[in-house]
Amino acid sequence: MLHAYVVFLLAASHCAYAIMSTDDYSGKLKDMMKMLHDTCIVRSSMDESKVADMSGGKFPDDATMKKYISCLWTSTVITDSGSIDMDMVNEMCPPKIKEKGPKILQDCFDKNAGAPNLDDKLYSMTKCMYETNSEDFIIF
Predict the structure, then answer these.
(1) Domain range for residue 121?
(2) Considering its fold, how many domains does the chain have in total?
(3) With 80 as the cut, is the pLDDT of residue 120 above it?
(4) Which residues contact 42 (CB under 8 A, 6 or more apart)?
(5) How far apart are the C-alpha atoms of 94 and 82, rounded to whole Å?
(6) In this structure, what CATH number is given to the domain that contains residue 85?
(7) Phi and psi for 11 in degrees, rounded to 5?
(8) Is 14 helix (H, G, I), strand (E, B) or coil?
(9) Residue 135 to residue 98: CA distance in whole angstroms
């Protein structure tokens, strides 16, 4: 359940967002974000510097980046069937983005319905979220 919160942060924070401070998150959530980050870095062979670049809006179109993003989402609020668990998103959404985050997430998810595979869809969704509201974006 905490994983879902973390990805929602990703999603909500991601919601195309600049840089949302992690100061709003509890220590437990920060620990979970680090664990998820570390797991997805290993699974995807992602370079740490590329993760930092995403915070600034750089989304290189490469397989490693897509695997990393997919790992974050599928470890949290994206179900095995490839849909969003909106109940979990709404439950876990940080107060700062509670009103706009879930809608941006759903809109960007729906916009990319025709993507060839889940990795491409989640990559494009995350990029859309950043482009929609970069002020609340966070990636870890």
Answers:
(1) 2-136
(2) 1
(3) yes
(4) none
(5) 23
(6) 1.10.238.20
(7) -65, -55
(8) helix
(9) 14
Amino acid at 24: D
Tokens 């179109």 — which residue?
Answer: 61
Q: How far apart are CA 106 and CA 126, in angstroms?
A: 11
Strands (E), 4-79: none
Q: DSSP label at 116? A: S
Q: What's the CA dihedral at 127, 8, 51, 118 to 10 degrees?
A: -60
pLDDT digits (tens, 9 = 90+) for 31-88: 878 899 999 999 999 998 898 888 889 999 999 999 999 999 999 899 999 999 999 8
Sign of CA dihedral 79, 112, 10, 84: negative
Count of helix runs (H) and strand runs (E) in the chain: 8, 0
Around Cβ 26, how many Cβ atoms within 10 Å?
Answer: 12
Q: In the block, which residue shows the tokens 């990805």?
A: 7
